[in-house]
Structures are given as C-alpha cells and as structure tokens.
Amino acid sequence: MQVYGAEKVWRQLVREHVAVARCTIERLMRRLSLEGVRWGKNVKTTIADLALPQPPALPPQKNQSKTTRAMDYRGDSGENTRSLKN
User: Fold this and answer.
1) What is the pLDDT of residues 21-61, one digit of tens each?
2) What is the pTM of this model?
3) In 10 A of CB 25, how many CB atoms?
4) 85 alpha carbon, distance to own chain's centre
C-alpha cells in the first residue's frame, strides 16, 4: 500500500490532466483525516499536566508608543547624531 501526501496526489492528478488546486487536495485530505507518511522524527506534542500549579499572570504592559516621545538616531560610530523632540 502506498501512502501519498497532498503534493504527490496533486502531481498525479496534474499528470492525468485533472485541473485542481493543491490547496483543494490539502483541504479534502484534512476533511477525510488522511495524512501522508512523515519522514524523520515523529511529531511530539506537549500535554499539560493540570495537576501542577499554574504560573502567575503577567502584569499589564504599558503602551510603549505613548510613553516614548523622543527617539534617538545613532550613526555608525554609536554616538547620538540626531534627536527628535516634540
């Protein structure tokens, strides 16, 4: 039994003069839960352990575009060559 991915299915259909987009093949394969063979390592996913305590929430971030009113432009030497002030 040969297992084709979306790329090989699409190429075979092109050889048979069937006009179909590769994204259509991908969508239909997803709908039918078909997958091609993956070469290399298997995909590993992280499974959360809900018994462990959750980390604390991050503090709210300030909007940096409003807090920084002046920007420094530095030249190649690293020294401050021009400053914008409002």
Assistant:
1) 999 999 999 999 888 887 777 777 888 888 988 888 888 77
2) 0.43
3) 21
4) 38
As a whole number of Å, the CA-based R_g of the chain is: 27
CA 33-4-1 angle, 5° bins: 100
Q: Given this model, what pLDDT does residue 39 score?
A: 78
Handedness of CA 72, 76, 78, 82 (dihedral sign): negative
Find out whether 70 and 84 touch, Cβ atoms under 8 Å: yes
Q: 73, 83 in Cβ contact below 8 A?
A: yes
Cα–Cα distance for residue pair 2/29, rounded to 1 Å: 15
